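Priority: medium. Attachment 1 of 2:
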């Protein structure tokens, strides 16, 4: 256990630190190689991990490609400006609408897509609106939180969702129906709690006349209109895939590639440039860190978790669901939610209670908001902000996350009971 823990902790430290621009993917893969060299994992383990994460990884690539093309044609910028104008200059309405937009993007384009694409757009618009630093920070903190807390409704809304759904062989419709109530509760409670804590930094009125017309940001109006129909078609295809028990990556990756080719044909995107600039480091990070964490499983971590889970299930479903969710949340906050979801899935498979799998997802999606390194989406979000000149310190972020997250998490877990 000591060697496996040392390799994991060292890998995670370098992922967070990123000395001299060292990429997160390179760090994670290096950690995986070290684990293999020292015998913490073997080649059979790598095959097992690959079998667990391949569908999630390919689906993620497809969603990111689709998001990048939509971003290129002005889809998200149009949505952002439209959202601001719907508020009619009311600062508090703008706060609520921005979180609803974040929920929409996170649900349909995954939490990482929301962090990578929507954050810089909203930041740019807030600067155009000449909002002060405190107000901008309030909107950003709330937006960062909602990107994870709203990533519950669909299998493709978060990598953790895909991994768990595949591990327990859950259907697309089955998952969507089960998580529909927790999703709605999560969005409503998140907005309410965030508003209560940040309302003092939200101005009563905002001069929205400073923003351009939303249609002026569109690069290709014909493709923009077509994109709405394409998204409906793509979403419908997931139901077909569920009926025939097909991997979700077939539709997510296939849809992303098809839309990229259509955009290229309409001269609104360059295939090679889009593929080249896609965040491939996330893929290597995902695979590498999963392998490193599998070493913790080999060292016996899952055995301890199984004992704890067996104990809390003796007290009924409510305690079991809330307890599992908080265990997942705390582990995610400490060791990142991507490795946590796999470790917890393996442990929960030993317990005859499928509800715990859903509780694990909720905990792994919301729990990471307690620390800056809890989820990949948060790491990306902080990296994007730092590049834009906004640096949020470890304690400043954690102080906010540790207060807000447990409240929202507890209520959302209760909605699953």
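Attachment 2 of 2:
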């Amino acid at each position: 256990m000591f060697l496996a823990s040392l390799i994991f902790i060292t890998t995670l430290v370098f992922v967070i630190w990123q000395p001299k621009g060292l990429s997160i993917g390179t760090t994670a893969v290096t950690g995986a190689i070290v684990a293999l060299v020292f015998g913490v994992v073997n080649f059979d383990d790598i095959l097992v991990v690959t079998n667990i994460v391949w569908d999630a990884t390919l689906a993620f690539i497809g969603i990111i490609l689709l998001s990048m093309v939509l971003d290129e044609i002005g889809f998200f910028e149009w949505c952002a400006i439209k959202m601001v104008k719907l508020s009619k200059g009311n600062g508090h309405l703008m706060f609520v609408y921005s979180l609803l937009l974040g929920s929409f993007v996170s649900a349909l384009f995954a939490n990482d897509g929301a962090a990578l694409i929507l954050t810089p757009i909203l930041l740019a618009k807030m600067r155009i609106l000449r909002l002060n630093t405190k107000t901008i920070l309030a909107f950003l903190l709330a937006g960062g939180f909602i990107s994870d807390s709203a990533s519950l409704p669909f299998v493709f809304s978060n990598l953790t969702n895909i991994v768990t759904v595949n591990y327990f062989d859950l259907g697309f419709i089955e998952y969507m129906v089960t998580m529909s109530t927790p999703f709605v509760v999560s969005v409503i409670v998140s907005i309410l709690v965030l508003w209560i804590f940040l309302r003092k930094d939200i101005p009563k009125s905002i001069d929205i006349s400073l923003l351009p017309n939303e249609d002026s940001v569109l690069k290709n109006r014909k493709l923009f209109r077509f994109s709405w129909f394409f998204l409906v078609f793509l979403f419908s295809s997931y139901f077909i895939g569920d009926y025939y028990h097909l991997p979700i990556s077939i539709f997510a990756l296939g849809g992303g590639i098809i839309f990229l080719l259509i955009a290229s044909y309409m001269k609104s995107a360059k295939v090679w440039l889009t593929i080249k600039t896609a965040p491939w480091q996330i893929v290597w990070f995902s695979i590498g860190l999963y392998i490193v964490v599998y070493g913790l499983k080999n060292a016996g971590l899952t055995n301890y978790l199984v004992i704890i889970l067996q104990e809390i299930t003796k007290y009924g479903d409510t305690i079991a669901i809330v307890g599992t969710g908080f265990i997942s949340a705390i582990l995610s906050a400490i060791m990142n939610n991507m490795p946590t979801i796999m470790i917890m899935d393996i442990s929960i498979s030993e317990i005859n209670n499928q509800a715990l799998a859903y509780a694990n997802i909720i905990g792994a999606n919301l729990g990471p908001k307690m620390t800056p390194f809890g989820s990949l989406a948060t790491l990306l979000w902080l990296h994007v902000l730092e590049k834009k000149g906004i640096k949020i310190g470890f304690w400043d972020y954690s102080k906010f996350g540790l207060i807000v997250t447990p409240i929202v998490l507890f209520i959302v877990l209760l909605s699953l009971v």
